[in-house]
Amino acid sequence: MKHIPRKRFGQHFLTDGAIIEGIVEAIAPQAGDAMVEIGPGLAALTQPLVERLGALTVIELDRDLAQRLRAHKQLNVIESDVLKVDFAQVFQRLGAIKLRVVGNLPYNISTPILFHLLDHVDVIQDQHFMLQKEVIDRMVAKPCTAAYGRLSVMLQWRYALENVLFVPPESFDPPPRVDSAVVRMVPRTDAPALDVRALSELVQVAFSQRRKLLRHTLGVWLQAKNFAGQFNIQRRAEEVPVHEYLALAQSVASS
């Protein structure tokens, strides 16, 4: 019985064999890797992955799809909203050194998923995700560009990021109205220890009014925190590189 894609789950199923092969090649799965796939859907990526891995854990919210996936003996199916999954518990259950996480993420909740995984980065070896190309452009953006913003700073703090593959709309059924791409995310070993929520608040304030100088936004916030250190607020948020935001967050925390 053909599965009808459900809009509320943001379902767009990958059907292009060449693109699937390219994604699998980028992931480079090895037998025995502890891999978790988010949103396996109709198993277009799942099947070539599990053939190389031997076993695969999948997270699927759609009840009908989860039931189909359970028929596959090499799959461990977690029927859940991914935002409610504790990846540290999955890691413990699999008894792995580190988890490898992959998936064609629902575009309507891709950013919340990325931030949810940020809380579990210590148990992750790498991540490969299909996302809206515009989101990946923001993730990998450099300072002084229109795409550079909160997402760029928060993710570049913890990951080395690489856009590895372009995916056109016609690679899906039904085709989305946007271009897609695949991003590789490798946790950084040199990331400074910071409170993720404190950094997130700082960066959110900084980018709340992109066109204004930081003295109107971040300057006021720093004053309220009684921050007495040095930071140039005569710039716009997009002009400040990631390492300066991280250093400021450390200074605010220590003061």
What does this structure look like?
This protein is of the alpha/beta class and 255 residues long. The protein folds into 2 domains: 7-187, Rossmann fold, CATH 3.40.50.150; 196-254, Helicase, Ruva Protein, domain 3 (Orthogonal Bundle), CATH 1.10.8. It has 10 helices and 9 strands.
Q: Report on the biggest sheet.
A: 7 strands, mixed
CATH architecture identity of the largest domain: 3-Layer(aba) Sandwich
- The fold-level CATH name of the largest domain is Rossmann fold
Helix content estimate: 25-40%
Q: Class by helix and strand content?
A: alpha/beta
Mean pLDDT: 93
- Name the shape in a single word: elongated
- Low-pLDDT segments, ≥5 res: 3-10
Strand content: 15-25%
The structural domain count equals 2
Query: In the CATH hierarchy, what is the superfamily of the largest domain?
Result: Vaccinia Virus protein VP39
N- and C-termini, Cα separation: 62 Å
Number of helices: 10
- Rg, Cα atoms, Å: 20 Å
Spatial strand order of the main sheet: 4-3-2-5-6-9-7
Order of helices and strands: EHEHEHEHEHEHHEEEHHH
CATH class membership of the largest domain = Alpha Beta
**How many strand segments?**
9
